[in-house]
Write a structure and sequence with these properties.
It is a single chain. The chain is of the alpha/beta class. About 25% of the residues lie in helices and about 25% in strands. The chain contains 11 helices and 17 strands. It has a 10-stranded mixed sheet. A 5-stranded mixed sheet has the order 2-1-3-4-5. The relative contact order is 0.13.
């Protein structure tokens, strides 16, 4: 099952909103086939693992290990449970049941109805961690929310800005910057507020690594940034990735930019997360400023946080948010400290 997890993570950049799934087929304690889900819409892990077995006659006496319940419905690909039944595998071992209501136990029931022995719950905690975005999305009906920020050694997000200090105040080193871009590639979307755009003019892409760009989400309630001049000025409106603008004024679409109008009389974050869920956006990394980060923290709408503590001292400026939790793990990268938090 541990090998299933390793294989599953190989598809981390490209399978969302599907789960990451790895599959291993064992005959007489020897692995005879492996596979993983490589890309959304492509063959599932079980299909690739079965296809990799050279002698298909061995399948009848083999055990199939998979970290998530085999699907039992027709989606972009045929049901994996049907394929397992077709090849008459002797036994199936699963880490986690599928939270997607289209599956949710139906795959296991189909296998057992066809006299295949099934064991569920092997390394289930690790399995849930591998697919924490997927489980959060289906069980909480919202994206998995990851907070990320860098703070100075004395606890500031930024120096005070003025007309003579408009440049970005870099805190983290180049190694951490590259790691941050890997983190972006692993999430479906990235979110910032209007102030971050006007102060830093970020591109919000994965240009430091090879990986897909996340969908860019901008909170601009008065829709004040976009104009013909704004398109040229603000990088978030360039054509390198899709951009969603959440605002109170209009709803329209121009090429890769979509404006989503929210109701001013309703809770902003709840409307935002509902709209992202309806668009099948499974995870969001929040890279906004103090105001944006605090809104998610104060409403307890976050699942994980990653905080980079750099070497510079700012002495004054914008204070970093406080989680009032102990990190679950800490590491040092290029001299910077990285603290990882989970929302209990």
């Amino acid at each position: 099952m541990s090998r299933c997890f390793e294989l599953a993570r190989s598809g981390s950049y490209y399978v969302a909103p599907n789960p990451m799934v790895g599959c291993v087929i064992v005959h007489n304690n020897l692995i005879i086939g492996e596979g993983f889900h490589k890309k959304y819409g492509d063959a599932h892990a079980e299909v690739n693992a079965i296809a990799s077995v050279k002698d298909k006659s061995l399948l009848k006496e083999s055990t199939l290990y998979v970290n998530l319940e085999p699907c039992s419905h027709h989606g972009k690909t045929p049901p994996c449970a049907d394929l397992i039944v077709k090849h008459q595998l002797k036994r199936v071992v699963v880490a986690n049941l599928d939270s997607n209501p289209e599956v949710a136990g139906k795959g296991i029931a189909h296998l057992e109805a066809n006299h295949i022995e099934v064991k569920v719950g092997v390394l289930k905690a690790e399995g849930r961690n591998v697919n924490r975005r997927f489980f959060t999305f289906h069980e909480k009906k919202r994206p998995y929310i990851l907070l990320k920020w860098a703070q100075s050694a004395d606890g500031y997000l930024d120096m005070e800005r003025n007309d003579s200090l408009t440049r970005i105040n870099w805190i983290s080193n180049e190694k951490c910057k590259r790691l941050s871009h890997i983190w972006r590639a692993e999430e479906s979307a990235i979110l910032v507020g209007k102030n971050t755009v006007t102060l830093d003019n970020p591109t919000l892409t994965t240009r430091e690594v090879e990986g897909p760009n996340p969908i860019r989400i901008l909170i601009d309630t008065e829709n004040s940034l976009y104009s013909e001049q704004g398109v040229k000025r603000w990088n978030i409106f360039n054509d390198q990735a899709k951009t969603l603008v959440f605002n109170y004024r209009e709803e329209r679409k121009i090429e890769n930019i979509e404006w989503i109008k929210l109701n001013k009389g309703e809770d902003f974050l709840k409307q935002l997360l509902r709209a992202l869920f309806e668009r099948n956006i499974q995870s969001v990394i929040i890279e906004g400023g103090r105001f944006t980060l605090d809104r998610f923290i104060e409403n307890n709408l976050w699942d994980e946080a990653r905080v980079i503590r750099g070497l510079p001292f700012f002495c004054n400026g914008v204070k970093a948010p406080e989680l009032k939790l102990r990190p679950i793990i800490s590491e040092i990268l290029g001299g910077d400290h990285i603290d990882y938090y989970k929302n209990p």
